[in-house]
Amino acid sequence: MRTAAKDLDVGYEIEPRSYDITQEKIDRYSRQVFYGKDTKNIHTDDEVAQRAGLPGAIAQGRYPVGYISERMLEFFGKGWIEGGKLDVTLVKGIYAGDTLTVKGVITDKIPEGQTIRLVLDVCLENQHGEQATAGSASGLVPA
What we know:
Elements: E1 17-20, H1 23-33, H2 46-51, H3 62-76, H4 78-83, E2 85-90, E3 99-112, E4 115-125, E5 131-142
Antiparallel strand pairs: 1-3, 2-5, 3-4, 4-5
């Protein structure tokens, strides 16, 4: 995988990375959100989710967004830690059994002091080719 550098052009697509979503992963994330406690909620219990009008237990929005951040850390390295920005919208529900692919394409290069900010359109795309999460991410590279 190529890492971020000033010579990458607008239109460069990062290497996609896919993640399988399981109920076990959703439950583990929920357990952390609730300080180690197991709870029945729309994320962990199909019946509770169905009473709320959902087809079944739905992944927490922040959980899969973490996959975008993980990809940006791999791409930008230190430039993500020192100046990374992420702004996304949750577009479509994510459920156990989904496979999400993180995609990103450079859309802008902005001089910023002694660095260049690479701006990417990013998304989580499900196995049906539908965007589940979409927005922008950016990080710094040496000028």
